[in-house]
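Query structure, 377 tokens:
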């Protein structure tokens, strides 16, 4: 909105408004606006959630220290979504399709999380949607995103080639009909593409969801991941930087920098109230929305592989659950004292604040490593 108003209309009458033509300027404004909205609306939302008795239900088999957190207002992810949505719509070029795809991914996964949280509160148990229902809805959301990406690809506004860390010239094409000589090449290509997009989006969303188990843990890691994605979206959309770093460039991706900046600012503002001891929890509406947003951005800028490093702690948390379940079913034994991984460290005696801080440090190291791979190619 402001891009159109100040840059395309008023700039002709007042030249300083040309600043709204710069992605970096609008990203800074979007980040600060998201931060301000989150901090200002936080107390109001917490009060409303308490008034309507929308509190967290603690899993019975969880750590005993978490039982005192029962009743803490949840569904704070609504605050995060609002804090991202408003500045994004205010400062992006609304004619950019990549931004709308990113917003669709965030809102659709957020809606799934909202349904899950609502059912938990209604039933007054830590059980919302079944695993099958949740996975089915996430698959539908991923297919919708994948379909839009193929439409953009047909219009020449999306590249299906993928960046690979450490390899400058190796850019495999996700539409395998580009290199597969087979009579069923096109159906296989579309099937592979949709499955790949679904894997990235569903994996990212659920990894963040599993990490959201300690005060400030997931949102702190999200600040780091969103900050790294802000750098990646800017370099991917910048002609000079993309060429210098040999990245798959898409000019439309530059506007995603503003979306990622808003994600960073909103996450930072939410941490103000979610820091230990938390006044509010994000709930599934927040964790699924944030994870889905990360996954969509990674697919849009062709950094799906690098997302594994940027969200390294999220990946480790998800892997700990997968390994724990597989080991128990196959061997009848557990690898960790409790999964996800942060609960294992609680069980061996680490204080909650120490786990959170150390996971943040590890997440920051992984994100910095991911950014260094842009040059080490």
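Result returned for the query:
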């Amino acid at each position: 909105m402001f891009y159109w108003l100040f840059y395309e209309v008023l700039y002709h009458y007042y030249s300083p408004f040309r600043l709204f033509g710069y992605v970096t300027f609008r990203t800074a404004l979007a980040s600060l606006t998201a931060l301000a909205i989150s901090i200002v609306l936080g107390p109001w939302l917490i009060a409303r959630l308490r008034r309507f008795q929308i509190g967290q239900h603690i899993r019975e088999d969880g750590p005993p220290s978490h039982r005192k957190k029962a009743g803490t207002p949840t569904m704070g992810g609504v605050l995060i979504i609002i804090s991202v949505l408003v500045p994004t719509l205010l400062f992006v070029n609304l004619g950019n399709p990549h931004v709308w795809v990113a917003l669709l991914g965030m809102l659709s996964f957020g809606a799934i999380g909202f349904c899950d949280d609502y059912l938990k509160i209604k039933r007054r148990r830590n059980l919302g949607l079944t695993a099958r229902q949740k996975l089915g809805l996430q698959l539908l959301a991923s297919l919708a995103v994948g379909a839009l990406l193929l439409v953009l690809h047909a219009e020449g506004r999306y590249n299906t080639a993928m960046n690979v860390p450490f390899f400058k010239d190796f850019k495999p094409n996700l539409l395998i009909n580009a290199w597969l000589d087979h009579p069923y090449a096109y159906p296989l290509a579309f099937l592979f593409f949709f499955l790949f997009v679904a894997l990235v989006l569903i994996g990212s969303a659920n990894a963040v969801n599993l990490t959201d188990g300690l005060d400030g843990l997931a949102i702190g890691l999200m600040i780091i991941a969103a900050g790294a994605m802000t750098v990646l979206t800017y370099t991917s959309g910048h002609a000079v930087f993309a060429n210098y770093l040999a990245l798959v460039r898409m000019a439309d991706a530059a506007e995603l920098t503003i979306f990622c900046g808003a994600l960073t600012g909103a996450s930072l503002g939410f941490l103000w109230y979610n820091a230990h001891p938390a006044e509010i929890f994000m709930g599934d509406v927040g964790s699924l929305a944030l994870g889905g947003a990360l996954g969509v951005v990674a697919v849009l800028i062709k950094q799906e592989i690098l997302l594994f490093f940027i969200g390294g702690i999220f990946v480790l948390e998800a892997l700990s659950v997968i390994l724990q379940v597989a080991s128990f079913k196959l061997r009848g034994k557990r690898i960790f004292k409790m999964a996800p991984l942060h609960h294992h460290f609680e069980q061996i005696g680490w204080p909650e604040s120490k786990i959170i801080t150390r996971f943040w440090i590890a997440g920051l190291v992984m994100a910095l490593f991911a950014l260094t791979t842009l040059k080490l190619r």
